């Protein structure tokens, strides 16, 4: 991965937030995460950390909604889980991870297989619409 991509993504995120958020409000951002491969997992954790570093973790409420193959990235039992330690560190920085229960059902993932720091939502698409209606910034890094 070219070294400038995470910086470019952070700059684009900052520009979007600056144009759409009042200066005094805490930014509310929802990342959509559907990539389950190792590179997709690494990139998502990099984007989340870059956003927190760029705007300050106390200035943003960040949620990451996981669906599709990315569901495997937030389990304790699947070999696709490569960055559980990075996910845990992000939750320590205030990031909330949500996983789509519909996707879990389709992929055969049981509730007991999830990392204990992850919560479920009935439908990722329903959650995205709900957050949008609440004024959250919806990003798919």
Straight-line N-to-C gap: 14 Å
Q: Based on Cα principal axes, name the global outline.
A: globular
Which residues form runs of ≥5 with pLDDT under 50? none
Question: What's the SSE pattern?
Answer: HEHEHEHEHE
CATH superfamily: DsrEFH-like
The tally of structural domains comes to 1
The largest sheet, given as strand count, sense and whether it forms a barrel, is: 5 strands, parallel
> Which strand order spans the largest sheet, edge to edge or round the barrel?
4-3-2-1-5
Content of β-strand: 15-25%
Continuous helix count = 5
DSSP strand count: 5
The pLDDT mean sits at: 87
**CATH hierarchy, class:** Alpha Beta
Provide a brief overview of the structure.
The chain has 141 residues and is α/β, with parallel strands linked by helices. It has five helices and five strands; from the N terminus they run H-E-H-E-H-E-H-E-H-E. Helix 3 links the parallel strand 2 and strand 3.
Summarize the SSE layout with pairings.
Elements: H1 5-20, E1 27-33, H2 38-55, E2 60-66, H3 84-92, E3 96-100, H4 101-107, E4 118-121, H5 124-133, E5 137-139
Helix pairs in contact: 1-2
């Amino acid at each position: 991965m070219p070294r400038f991509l995470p910086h470019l993504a952070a700059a684009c995120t900052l520009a979007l937030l600056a144009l759409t958020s009042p200066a005094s409000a805490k930014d509310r951002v929802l990342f959509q995460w559907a990539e389950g491969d190792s590179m997709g997992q690494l990139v998502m954790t990099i984007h989340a950390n870059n956003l927190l570093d760029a705007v300050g973790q106390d200035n943003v409420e960040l949620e990451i909604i996981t669906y599709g193959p990315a569901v495997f990235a937030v389990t304790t039992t699947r070999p696709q889980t490569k960055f559980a330690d990075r996910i845990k560190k992000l939750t320590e920085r205030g990031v909330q991870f949500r996983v789509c229960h519909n996707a879990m059902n389709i992929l055969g993932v049981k509730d007991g297989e999830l990392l204990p720091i992850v919560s479920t939502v009935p439908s990722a698409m329903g959650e995205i619409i709900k957050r949008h209606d609440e004024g959250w910034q919806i990003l798919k890094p």
